[in-house]
């Protein structure tokens, strides 16, 4: 006699397949979650490492900026020291010249004239003073022009001022250039030479 299985084997097989599918699906989900977690951890670690590098770079940039600023300040101090050294050297070199110049101002001062203010800017000397008459001012201008240490006197203003009921003085302002013996002669020689050279060039051009 044939053996017949009357149990619901199809439903049982379906349940087994369903259980295997659920197990496989759970394994896939667990694996995917593990992969996502691992990827997230890797990305977080990479971001933290990059942030650490960025912080290190920022710190190094700050250090370099501080050094650059320090170098700039040192350059400015060096330039200031060089300028001061140059001023001191110029003063030391011009000390005899300045003394000679004041001596010449005293020597060129005629009777009846006195200075009230002297101001020197570079080689230009601005003079204010008072004289008994215009003739005294003219004498002062001639004396300044004849000096080897002073050149190009220029009278900018002269006017009569009454100091009291009787006293009267001529207040004047003039400027003069500080020079040295030989400079005026060298300039006078250089100007005719340049003029002659220009004439020679024009002559050659005309011949061509």
TrEMBL record:
Residues 183-208 are annotated as: Disordered. It holds the Pfam family PilN. Signal peptide: none annotated. The chain crosses the membrane at residues 21-39. GO terms for biological process: type IV pilus assembly; type IV pilus-dependent motility. It comes from the Bacteria. Residues 47-91 form a coiled coil. Keywords: Coiled coil, Membrane, Transmembrane, Transmembrane helix. Residues 194-208 have a biased composition (Polar residues). PANTHER family: DNA UTILIZATION PROTEIN HOFN, TYPE IV PILUS INNER MEMBRANE COMPONENT PILN. This is Type IV pilus assembly protein PilN. It comes from Geopseudomonas sagittaria. The lineage of its organism: Bacteria, Pseudomonadati, Pseudomonadota, Gammaproteobacteria, Pseudomonadales.
